[in-house]
Every structure is written in structure tokens, then in C-alpha cells.
Amino acid sequence: MDQEQRFLGVLTSSPFRIAIVYSIVFALGAVALLGAVYFAVSRVIDGSTDNLIEAEVQGLREQVLVLSRSDFIALIEQRSQDQDVRGAVYLMVDPQLRPVAGNVPTWPDIGADQGKWIQFKVAVPYGDQTRVHEVRAQRFPLPGGYRMLVGHDVQERQDVKNVMMRGLVAAVVLTMMLGLGGGIWMGRRILAHAGAISAVATQIMRGDLSQRLPVRDAEDELNTLAHEINGMLDKIEQLTLGMRTVLDSAAHDLRTPLNRLQSTAEAAMAQLDAASPERRVLERVSTEVDRMRGTLDALLRIALAETGTVAREDVDLSELVASIVELYAPVTEELGGCLQSGVATGAHIQGSRQLLAQALANLLDNAIKFTPAGGHIRVSLRNDPGGPEVIVEDDGPGIPDDKRELVLGRRVRLDEARKVPGSGLGLSLVAAVTKLHGARLVLSDAGPGLRVALKFSLA
Amino acid sequence: MHILIVEDDQVARDYLAKALREIGHTVDVAPDGLEGLHLASSIALDLAIVDRMLPKLDGLALVQSLRATGRKFPVLILSALGDVDDRITGLRAGGDDYLTKPYHMSELMARVDALARRGELGGAESATRLKLADLELDRMTRRVMRGGKKIELTAREFQLLEFLMRHSGQVVTRTMLLEGVWDYHFDPQTNVIDVHISRLRQAIDKDFDKPLLHTVRGAGYSLSEEE
């Protein structure tokens, strides 16, 4: 299957297609070139033999008028034996078509209506065996009902033509085969390089910004492109690291004074009587520190998710969803509600388990907060072939159509939500975590209630 | 116990040292990483609390060099950074626990106790049978008995009880439970842990005169024989 796919990949690669187009063009070129040569050579050979025969016929027509029959026969015999004129064919027959003189055994059985030129085959002794040769000739009558045939062996011409035709076919086949082979070779080479690049690109998209595209020694377009993309990645990594540094120092500069505040408040509280009003004030301070910490944690996690620099691991989404459901089920029941779940097994993704868990917990916190007592919450995990989908539905008041986009923004709390405690960052974190995992977050109407779907893709 | 605090923030350091001394620990303090490393290498320590970002020598580098020189006492890392990945790098560097600022002193104390106990117990942590008063838990057969009566628990309740029993007599905070039993590192807005605890309490304490699972106000829970 894999091999078959790789082969199909080579066949559809651009170098292979280009190679095929070029080999067709070269094959057509070879046909045109050899065809032209063939045509010219044939014309030259044909023209020269025809002229030779014409001249011989003309000469014999004149000789027959001046020579006696026996002298003429002697002349024909002499010419037939003449080794200087290679391939010359003579035949003189009597009115009964019996041969009188010449080097062809029989008068060819060709009707007179065939025109001036005739072509026929003659068996010629060739060493131990005989070969059938093609002969081109003219016939003309002699006085006394005798007939004369003057021609020329054109087998050589035929041989040349055959050789050229075979050469033509071989040239076309060879060109096509070279083209095909070259195309497959180049296709595989490019595919191997492109495959390496796309494997690295996938890792980079998963958040490993330290990866770089492979670069070869050769100076081709793919390498130039890889070089430029690597330069771009350097820049992105630098910027992301810069963001991470800013984030870390912001975290440090906010957490340190908060910690001091907390320590000071706790130290002071330890000196005070449990019922004293001063202690109650300090308890309020401590509670506010907790709240600020909660907001800070959420903001930092959102920012962290947005830099995309969170380490990824294999996350068993089925286990995670089941465990979050198990964590929240008792509290839902305690509040008179009901938490149902349908979790498909075996769903795995690459990501941050902690951030995914927090996103799911935020969705359940929200569902519990906004669903009236006795409400129903349903968590499902579908393991679709395209990627798993986590759905959290409740039968609470839901979010109006026109405000669904709005609530994903930072610190947005709808009027209805002001009655319940919260930082307004819950859904922003869900949105940031969803984005970090390359997933899609879709809010819709559960009729009644809110339906939140996180659609992951395996690509 | 002899505890070393390596922390550059003076307010936090002084309060921490004072609180630990008040409950009877011997405390040494260091304001930077180099002095911290010097002290940790020259005195016999039971535990170190190390801030992650320190002048002169970074907290993680300090822990790494301690581990490289064979110092095995538990280390609690305090961090003012963002979390998620930082916790993992902290633990990988050789830290035994990780706490993000700002923290409550009760949370820190509970974790110090847990780490100190871990150091004392050594290999006893892997014991198959845990026992507290008439409550018994067998990790192999996954059976829980109290007063000779079998107690039915869900898988998660079993894990929860196992965690509490391994820390019996100590205060265990909600975050410690969420980390130790569920392996989650965030604060849920809903009191999910409390409800799990109250279910476990129903199972192990309801039919018996003497309750074992106690709520420690403002801190967490404790499984112990004493009230």
C-alpha cells in the first residue's frame, strides 16, 4: 500500500511530468529528423537509378535499329555479364516470352497496363543461398515481336530504407524509455527531498521551532527555498523566544510582589486573634491575592498557549476526557444535576495534557456555573477518522447567536454571567488551547443550552 | 529537621525561615545561588527550598549540581515563572516538588512535611499493605478493610485513599490531591476535590464511631487517628 502510494507519488510529481513531456517532444523531433533524412536519401537513390535505366533504355532503343539481332543479343549478353554495372538487369525474350538473352531467368508476369515503370522480385544467388531482390525496370518492344526489359536491382535502396525505419523506431523507443527512467529518477529524488522537508515542517507546526528544513549540497530551487524558509524560521524562533522571555519576566515581576503580599498578610494574621476585625481584613486581602493569582495563572497560560512554545507529548485524549468527567461527575450530582458521557476509546493527539485538561475543566466549570440546578451536562468524545472531536453540551441558558464570537475574546463576561463568580478568561483559555492544538472551536445551540465542540485534526 | 532556604526575595525568605523555625526546624538561609550551593555542600541537610530564579547561580543549575555531586536530600522548587513546562523542567533538573508563587504558607508546609516524610520512609513507600488504626489497604489485591469489614471503593476512591494513607498524619492540600491522584496541575473553579473527599468519607467513616478523615480548616485534609 505504502509502496504503491510512493510509486503513484512519483508518477504525479512535477519532474516526472516534465520528463514525460520532454521525452515526447524529443521523440517527435527524432521522428521528424530521421523522416527528413529518409525522404531525402530515398529521392536521391530513386532519382539516380531511374536516370540510369532511362539512359540505358534510350541507348538500347538506338542500338537495336543499327545492329543485327545476333549482334544485339551479344550486346545484351555482354552487358548482363558486365561487373562494372552492379545491379543492372537485362532480359530479352522472344514473342513466346522465352528468354533469349539477359541475367533474369523469367519474364515478369505483370500486365502491360501497369505503366512505364514496373517493380518485381527476382531470386538472386547469394553465396550458398538465394535472396529475393526487388527490381525496378522498364519494358519495351523490339522488332519481330521480341521484347526487352531493362532494370536495376533496388534491393540496396530497400535495405537502406528498412535500416532507417528500424532506426527511427529504436530512436523513439529509446527516447521514451530514457525520458521515463529519468523522470522516475528525478521524481524520486525530488520526492525524497520534499518528503524530508514536509516531515520537518510537520514537527515545526507541532511547536518544535528548533527544527530546520534539510538542505542539500546541490544548488537547486528547492534548496534555495529551504534556505529562505530556514531563515524565516530563525526569525520566528527568535521572536517566539523573545515573547517567552517577556512572558517569564512579566510572570516573575507579578508573582514576586504577590507572594510578598501573601507572606506579609499571613505573618500579620498569625499575630492576631481569630475573631479580630483586623484579621478579617487581612483574610480579605489574602482572598484577593488568590483571585489575582487565578487571573494571572489564566493569563499566563493563555499567553503561553499563544506563543505556541508549549512542549508536546502524545496525549491519550480518551483517558483524559474520561478522567475529567470522572473528576467532575460527583460535584455535578451534588448540585442536583447530571453529567453524562460517551467517550470513544483510542483517541490520541500530540499536545499538552495539562493545557487540554484545564481547557476541558474550564468548559465543565462553565457548564456547572451556568446550568440551573438539576440541569444536564453531556460530554462526548468521538473518534472520527479525520480526527477526534470533544463535545460539551449543557441545557442551561446558552449563549445568544450574535454573542458567541464575542465570548471567546479576552475578559468578556455577558450581563447574565455577572451574577456568578469568574475571571472571564475561561473560554479565552479554551480558545487559545484549541488554537495551539490546531483544532477548531465551535460554539452552537444545543437547543436549549450551549454546545461547545473541539474538533482536532490528525494532519 | 535541617532545612536550607535559597531565596533572593528577602520578605519571602524571612517569613519562610521564621515559620519553619517556629515549628522546630533548624533553618539556614542563602540569598543567592552560589552561597546556596556552598551551604548545601558543606552541611548535612534534610531538605532544601530553592527559588528558581536566583542571582549568581540559577536555581535549576544549583539543583543540578547538587544532584551531580550525589546530594540526595529532597528539594522543593519555588517558581515565579509561568507554569506548565517549567514544572517539568524543574522536576527533571532534580527537584522533588514544585510550587508556584504566590503560595499559602499552609500549602508550603504540607509539601515540606510530605517531602520530609518521603525522605524518612525511604523504600517503605512501596509497601503493599498500608495500615492506619483499624483501616487497612492492600495495594496488590486492591482491597480495603475497616474493623474486619470489607469496604467497596471505586478505582479513583481507592487511589485517593491510598494517597491519604501514604501521607497519614499529615495535612494534604487540595492541589496535592489533584496533582498526586489525578496528575492535574491547575486550580478548578469548582470544589471538585471536596466532593470526592466527602464520598470517600461516606465510605470509610460513616459506619464507624471514630472518624479518620479530617478536614483541616484553611489547609486541606488529613487522615489520622487523632482528632
Give structural notes.
The complex is a heterodimer of chains A (459) and B (227). Chain A has 459 residues and is an alpha+beta fold. Chain A has 9 helices and 12 strands. In chain A, the strands form 3 sheets. In chain A, strands 2-1-5-4-3 form a 5-stranded antiparallel β-sheet. Chain B has 227 residues and is α/β, with parallel strands linked by helices. Chain B has helices at 10-22, 33-42, 59-68, 85-92, 105-121, 155-166, 174-182, 192-205, and strands at 2-6, 26-30, 47-51, 75-79, 97-100, 129-132, 135-138, 143-146, 149-151, 172-173, 213-216, 220-223. In chain B, the strands form 3 sheets. Chain B has a 5-stranded parallel β-sheet with strand order 2-1-3-4-5, with helices on both faces. In chain B, strands 6-7-8-9 form a 4-stranded antiparallel β-sheet, with helices on one face. Chain B is elongated, with a radius of gyration of 19 Å.
